[in-house]
Amino acid sequence: MIPTIPTPDELLDKGFSRGKKQADLLRSQKIPKHLKGKRIEERRVVTSCQVIKDKLKSIIDAVPEIESLHPFYQDYIDITVGVDDMKQALGGLNWAYGIITQLEKEYGAKIRKNPSEKATAIQKQAYGRIASVVGKIKKDLDFLDFAKQNLRNMPTIDFEATTIVIAGFPNVGKSTLLRQITEAEPQVANYPFTTKGIQIGHTEMHWKHIQIIDTPGLLDRPILEMNDIEMNAIVALEHLADAILFIFDASETCGFHLDNQYNLLKQIEKIFSDVPVIYLFNKMDLVEDAEYLNQYIDDEENSIFISAIEGEGIDKINKKINRIKKIERNFDEEDDEYY
């Protein structure tokens, strides 16, 4: 998405080095003495400007227009690095491109109009102006390099697939479930926030492509207070989910009481009221009193009792998933009241 970003020094070195090489090619050519010095320095300035401009343009052109991206990617970029900051940085490069274009014309003309003995001094003035312009976009180049590093692992989403999002507190078994029903192999460990970022698995059911997304741990608190990792999950749910697999840890060994897990479910259901939810009560192999769970069951028909680590109940989940239909969304009509 974002190409390799040079530092200001690297950008100037590339431009000035190429300018010198092109200027040196003229030294061996037969040019009238009163023109030769001017031609050499003009070539040096023009080539340097063009090389720097070409690099800036390649960066600007390589970054897609953010508004043209799927809303999932727009929000993902905004959460990760900031859409406004990205636009500002690209605007800085565009500004530099325009100024260097002006300097190329200005100093090329100035060298041609002045005597040959002044050409070198004018070339040095041009280089000073060019260096000043490039120096002013250091913060923009630094930001784009930061954005490149942070967006390089941006998930590849199949927007045509039926998408199931796994949600629930940390350590309730989301990653284990993803591994059971797809070929994905996310790291599974008994530590809070094991799942970093968004992990995706794929499977086929009756010639239908199913995409299953394992979200970061969602915490039971207002969305506006969530951190970046938690917001990634909200983005996935809002723009991608055709259904939600909400996982309860029935044993409460995840460290969160069932009351808290239930409250999180209600928050998700309220926000994403048009998305169907399948309720999974996991770690049933560790539960001694199953009747205790009845108070947390709102929809018995869509509730499944499983042990993801043992593979129990996976067939029932697959049957439910197979019946999920893709939700047709008109993103132009979506609002952003939760941002």
TrEMBL record:
Q: Which UniProt keywords apply?
A: GTP-binding, Nucleotide-binding
InterPro entries hit by this protein: G_OBG (IPR031167), GTP-bd (IPR006073), NOG1_N (IPR041623), NOG1_Rossman_fold_dom (IPR010674), P-loop_NTPase (IPR027417), Small_GTP-bd (IPR005225)
Entry-linked Pfam families:
NOG1, NOG1_N
Q: Which residues cross the membrane?
A: none
Q: What Gene Ontology molecular-function terms does this entry list? A: GTP binding
- Ranges for domain OBG-type G come to 162-326
Report the protein name in the record: GTPase ObgE/CgtA
Q: What is the scientific name of the source organism?
A: Methanobrevibacter thaueri
- High-level lineage: Archaea, Methanobacteriati, Methanobacteriota, Methanomada group, Methanobacteria
